[in-house]
Amino acid sequence: MAINRRDFLKVSAGTSGSLMLSLSLPGCSGMPTGYTQETGEWKPDVWLEVTNTDEIHFTLARVEMGQGTYTGLTTLIAEELEVDPEAITPKFAPVAPEYRNPLYKLQLTGGSTSISTSWEPLRTAGASARQMLIMAAARIWQVDSADCSAAQGRVLHPNGRDSLRYGQLVELAAKESISDDVALKPASEWKYIGKQRGRLDARAKSTGTAVYGIDVELPGMVYSVVTRPPRYGARVKAFNESDVSAMPGVLDVFEIQRGVAIVADKYWRARKAQDALKVEWDNEEALSLSTHEVFASYRKAGDEDRGESERSEGDYEDSLEKAERVFEAEYSQPYLAHSTLEPMNATVWYRDNSIEVWAPTQAPDLGRIAAARVTDLSPSDVTINTTFLGGGFGRRLTQDYVEEAAAVAYRIKKPVKLIWSREEDTQHDLYRPAMLHRMQAGFEGSKLIGWHHQIVGPQLLDWYVRNAAPAQYPWAPKFMYDTLGKVGLLAEGIATPKDMSAIEGAIEYPYNVDNIDVRHTHTDPGVPVTFWRSVGYSHNGFAVETFMDELAHETGEDPYQFRRKLLAGQPRHLEVLDRAARLANWDTPVAQGRGRGIALFKSFGTFVAQVVEAGVENGVIKVYKVACAVDCGQVVNPRIVEDQIEGGIVFGLTAALYGEITYEDGQVQQSNFHDYQLLRQYELPEVTVDIVQSTEAPTGVGEPGVPPVIPALGNALFALTGKRQRSLPLKADA
């Protein structure tokens, strides 16, 4: 194709503002690319759109819940497209197979995978667009495209004077064809990747213009609250419907699968009506256990079943017989709530034989299944609009709140906003599982020759598969949903991925020991559970790194040096361990009344070491300093890495100091922040983060700050008091 300047000017002058260049990412085969005159109509794909008015739109396949995808993923596109990240407008993706997370085969944001799974595809998309725009300009100028370049949204002529805006080239560029192996910019030419920059969503969030789920407003919207049973699994027997229906503003009161829904014209009228609601519950199938019974059942299960072997090296039983001494310890960790600052909510509108959902969800394709499940609709009839999330931490991977809102909207036939109270959010959460760990180590002299770790507790797939399995097969009829879930569990590790939630972090034990035996005894007491920030790494990190500290004490060795000598051949582990120790001045005496503890853990591909300095003041644990070294591969935005590591540290310290959900007779005893406390601002320690400059592929940072800080704090308290704590939360008077 050849075109002269006069013809080009005719084309660019005659085009409307709706022209765009649409690029599908590699791996999204079969999706059309090219020129369209309809700005509002586009095929579901992870598309980069460049209009002839120089607007650049980027559709995010991952949600933004504070972890920085909005900025980080946009930066990858901007780098290769040669525009400032602020020139790009991100928007959240609709539900489509092309947006699925390749690691999970579901459209979800979790596992600290957003950057790592997008690193090459998004840069390739940006580079492809840039190259097509350059080729279009080169044809106009009738010069070699290799002699042209791009900068700040323009293609530059080889003469250094002339240039064309991207918007002027969009129709012509859409007709270009390039190979799949487009060249990416070398690191030496990066302008944005690896640079300290602010967040693209900061202004909207600071000014209140960012729309979270709880902010959604629709014409004619009504409000709903749901009263759920105090004991999980109970069912509604009877309720005073007529009394509540007569109250001001109440539009309807009715039973849904998870309890009794009230709909009113105002939110507080719905809450007022809820106060007057009296429900009689059928507790025949309800949860009835208490926390001490949970751990008693774990110990019984661990005694009766050594569990499935998850990692076996050498001959641990033989090493046990040869050991001169054997050291044992048991660690327990409680159920933990998520406590997202934005409680669960969703807005749903059922109309014209379709349903539209606005929700802060980490898994929009599962939300679509949840809405279809409680209506007469197919998943294809459900539209999910993802909003900003006021915290996720894994809680919003489970779609119970969407299911409830859809059930209400299906009956009401009006736009309905369902909001959970803080008490409901705490008492009807799906929790981080309580877990039990039995550790054993054998020594020959001072040499560690055997390591045994038995993990006792549930798996998360048992609870998550209900909507996850149908989401992978949205074409399946609804009567098959539960069957698909059961098949998914039966085929786990064969036709479906193995559930690693209980064992992750334990099977990656990095220390050089000849004989290693890691096992999981699967037992589930029936408490509803789901993913929690850093998942299995959180509880395995506490058990592994506390036990390592105990072993160092048993041998009389320095905890840092004890770990160090067992890390031969693990350069990235060693690097962060050494950096954290230097950062904390490990070899210098700690101040009077303080203790110092160290821990090292790899999670989600990221290596993190932390040193905590803590003490006890007026009967309360006080964390003074946290020194952290992190190796997350190539860094896209150092500021976001620091933010996420610091956030993970605060999240972990909250769990270490305060986190505990307890049961009595099947009922959760905590209800709000007064008895499920979060770390307050005045309690925050001084945190220093040292980021390793790496050329390795990027890995996650949203979660890896959590696992090491919990054992590091426990180890610091032991260094101060000489008393070892093997259960969480940690106590000042233990």
UniProtKB/TrEMBL annotation:
Give one Pfam hit by family name.
MoCoBD_1
InterPro entries named among the record's database cross-references: Ald_Oxase/Xan_DH_a/b (IPR000674), AldOxase/xan_DH_MoCoBD1 (IPR008274), AldOxase/xan_DH_MoCoBD2 (IPR046867), N-heterocyclic_Hydroxylase (IPR052516), OxRdtase_Mopterin-bd_su_IorB (IPR012368), TAT_signal (IPR006311)
Specify residue ranges for compositional bias: Basic and acidic residues.
300-319
* Domain named Aldehyde oxidase/xanthine dehydrogenase a/b hammerhead: residues: 207-285
* Disordered as annotated region, ranges: 299-319
Output the superkingdom of the source species.
Bacteria
What protein name applies here? Xanthine dehydrogenase family protein molybdopterin-binding subunit
